[in-house]
Target: Putative DNA modification/repair radical SAM protein
Amino acid sequence: MAQLDTRAKLAILADAAKYDASCASSGTVKRSSEGSKAIGSTEGMGICHAYAPDGRCISLLKILLTNSCIFDCHYCINRKSSNVRRARFSAQEVVQLTLAFYRRNYIEGLFLSSGIIRSPNYTMEQLVEVARSLREDHDFRGYIHLKTIPDADPELVAQAGLFADRVSINVELPTDRGLQRLAPEKSSERIAGAMGELKGAIEEGHDARKRFKSAPRFAPAGQSTQMIVGADSASDGEIVTRAAGLYDRFALRRVYYSAFSPIPDASAVLPLQRPPLMREHRLYQSDWLMRFYGFKPAEVVEAADASGMLPLDIDPKLAWALKARDQFPVDVNRAPKEALLRVPGLGTKAVKAILASRRWRALRLDDIGRLTVSVAKVRPFIVTVDWRPTALTDTIDLKTRVAPKVEQMELF
Model:
């Protein structure tokens, strides 16, 4: 490998990291360096492409330790057979970059992943060393997210949890058959085993903190994972079902979806075109329905068509409502929270406001209109003091009435 300066390495390895979507986080503990010689702090809220309550954009230094890899996964631009320019940071180079960017107020933390070099254990040792050095040698209190390696020794992964706020292991693809076809060197059993060990370590850490205040925190922001969408034949229904299983089995904080992007010198087994980005968006919406709106996986799958794909022209909540019209209309002045959360156009904040307001007075349609972007979308599914949809809920062309209008954007 030709000798590259730090700037050249950064250009290569920051660009290579853009394919990893799971760099946002929330739920970690708050740390501050105020009144000490430490450096950095965490806000305990969304990081990377997120905004703090005061409007500040919070971001991470998102890089790979190296884009060299001993594996040859078909969908990966950094696979062994790929003809890309390679680069590699040393652990101390990453440490110094993180500190330098933080001191310049460019970042508030680090997201670090890597290709596999020499062996999984060797690579994991390098990743852990970066986090250890930042925490112990420099007393860095900012956010750290480490991508761990399923094949690495569990002791190394456990060390990662002692220094990182969040740890994650990618399941790569939604189905076992897809993984066997596109990444035969990886094993779904090993991935699941590593995620299970992480879950156990996180739970043990939480229990230890309850008993002993001096016990070290272990991955306080939990673990997450990512799956690639559109590289194999998995339907949205299969993806939603797999994600729900991962949440239940491993107590994940997040499942991230990354739309497959065609890569240079691609394998012949890969699709020639990337899936619509709207498909990725619909999967995130379905994920939200399960996590915050009380939907069961089977109910989200009901919103899909016969082939298991979610509609792209309307959101999955509206698609479900159109198929479950017997659940509507809902009386906003009487219905429980669970029923209100299923009304298309009503978000969690709107439902909270409805529950608080109706304690003092009966709500009218205008009141609901002030809580939602489009009252036209809500009207067929609710009853208020001055509104009842009568036959509107069962109208054949209801979808065209409530679906967002497609408009041609102006060029200038």
In short: The two ends are 47 Å apart (CA to CA). Residues 6-275 form a domain with the TIM Barrel fold (CATH 3.20.20.70). The beta strands are 50-51, 57-58, 61-64, 109-113, 143-147, 166-168, 223-229, 254-259, 330-331, 382-383. The chain has three domains: 6-275, 277-323, 325-402.
